[in-house]
Amino acid sequence: VTRITLLTDFGSRDGFVAAVKGVLATLAPRAVVDDVAHDLPAGDVLAAARALARYWRRYPEGTVHVVVVDPGVGTERAALACAAAGRFLVGPDNGVLTPALSPAWGGGDAQCVSLAAEGFGSPVSPTFHGRDLFAPAAAALATGRALASLGTPHPHPVELAPARALRTAEGSEGEIVAIDRFGNATTSLPGAWADGCVLEAGGLRLRVRRTYGDVASGEPVAVVDSEGFVEVAVRDGSAADRLGLVVGTPVRLARG
Amino acid sequence: VTRITLLTDFGSRDGFVAAVKGVLATLAPRAVVDDVAHDLPAGDVLAAARALARYWRRYPEGTVHVVVVDPGVGTERAALACAAAGRFLVGPDNGVLTPALSPAWGGGDAQCVSLAAEGFGSPVSPTFHGRDLFAPAAAALATGRALASLGTPHPHPVELAPARALRTAEGSEGEIVAIDRFGNATTSLPGAWADGCVLEAGGLRLRVRRTYGDVASGEPVAVVDSEGFVEVAVRDGSAADRLGLVVGTPVRLARG
Amino acid sequence: VTRITLLTDFGSRDGFVAAVKGVLATLAPRAVVDDVAHDLPAGDVLAAARALARYWRRYPEGTVHVVVVDPGVGTERAALACAAAGRFLVGPDNGVLTPALSPAWGGGDAQCVSLAAEGFGSPVSPTFHGRDLFAPAAAALATGRALASLGTPHPHPVELAPARALRTAEGSEGEIVAIDRFGNATTSLPGAWADGCVLEAGGLRLRVRRTYGDVASGEPVAVVDSEGFVEVAVRDGSAADRLGLVVGTPVRLARG
Description:
Three copies of one chain form a homotrimer. Helix content of chain A is 18%, strand content 33%. By secondary structure, the first copy, chain A, is α+β, with helices and mostly antiparallel strands. Chain A is built from five helices and 15 strands. In chain A, the strands form two sheets. Chain A has a seven-stranded mixed sheet, covered by helices on one side. Chain A has a seven-stranded mixed β-barrel with strand order 9-10-14-13-12-11-15. Chains in contact: A-B, A-C, B-C. At the A-B interface, α1 and β2 of A face β1, β2 and α2 of B.
């Protein structure tokens, strides 16, 4: 069973995602297609990359991950198909694929090609590469076509900068890198750096606990999240709202 | 592999969609079920039709497209199963299936039957035909049952009027037919009519360009969309908000 | 074909759901995974249970239903895998699985085990049991592993109280138990109790009709819903908004 995953900012209700899935059903009828999400903030390349980081390696080898957050569709930006750690990645060359491509993000030893727009036998709309270019490329990979046959080598894809995370004499300095649906705020600071430290975030000093339930309902708490990074939460509430945290807010681990 | 697609206004969180999918899993266990969307505006038949237009032909022949936006559920309106261009369509007879049934919308040579409510061996709730009537009909088609066996011929299904699109001495006149998640506004005017013309929309005169990136960020632009119609966009922004466009707003192509 | 369904409050856009689906794809590659919904109100155990009630029995026997609404993740609350009416249920022991486990909710003769966190061969994050504990348990059940082998017997899972529904000399008394996306308000009163009665809800007295279309657009109406309970609706509108109904609002059936 080969799987194709789809992460976009298209929304579902206009039928664009279904047009992509129809193309996949036509060209790779035996592949299983998993929706990741289609409600990413429009054009938010960083949010797409942060999401991709959470799942791309959880899928088995051979999976084709398609990510289309593409404000530059139809311009000179390249369209990529890549292989990394046994998975395939397909999307625009604007940084969305960074987690799989960049060693600084934990990515694999990646190989990328720039897709040839004319390579798939049908006209390509300059405003809908998801349907006309990325979906055919994903279907080709899912049905066993070689990556190298899909385009020309593209050795230097765009990579988003890694989040700031520095060890200092007093502990370490980092930043908030993502806010999830619950208002939990992930930091760039590895949990392994937290030993003997307290987290300073949003004007509070928080000891790092095991889980949310280690404090009373409504209380702020720091934990090590499911990816191994320090996270700020409020039990049964939103840390982002309560502590005024946004992506980029500085945080510190200080020897306490 | 036979596919069934689902487009509804049920929302997902109440479990109604899952009840439909459970019935499909029971009656057509080998069919692949694709969610299109379940967050259509409640009761918005036109929005459902505009979405269906974007994907129904992208799926391979044999696909069963189910569309349930059905404010008249349980009344005398017919429940339809249809065949058009090798695909099947299932839904209420209120216009939602128009893109596949009406030649004026690009639909195929369609055949429809009115579903017999008693035809599927289980009681039919008068408020949930999605689960009790449309899902069993879709499962029957997906498992090879003949369309004609599902009901009585229904030669004149309800059809939504096509959007206004007129060629005139000075160019052409049309209207906004859909606003997508990005605020891009699709018009009823074919791209082929745009040669040598400028688009007049929302008080602006716009040359038709190739893609969004052909103007600076924040600037309005007209393009030919992925279905072949003229579209109004604002790069990295919302044309609907910026230019005050809604479904039905008049637009013109004028020889410039 | 074995199916696994997923109902969570994770939201889709952060990639947590996809991490769960990646684990399922790795451990149970031939199982079909159905998304139910991921936009449940955060931490709303009752909303999850009400949704589960609508679909768990509609799926065929052998289906594995995963429900993760889990504000107590990582605390001493048990993690459950259960069998009821031929289906499997997986989720936290906080009441979310009540509809399948409790006879008062229509549940089956259930058997439950408390999952051993160490039983699946990988480290378990104290903040993401969905990925590290519930998904591996669901995959194990979907691939034929015996329920009893997944943990220790857990004979008394947490059960939510059934909604209030009392027959009285004058008729019956109950309450609103759920509001759906359309603003329709389901009550705890069985449709079979409505004979010869009028529904009193939100200050109105309503005769129980067959379907929404039996009154004029904009008018309130009582019907028997698709699960067999009396429901309050406003045709083409929201009964919850119009009549000020919320979950818990008292309602009555009075001999009229």
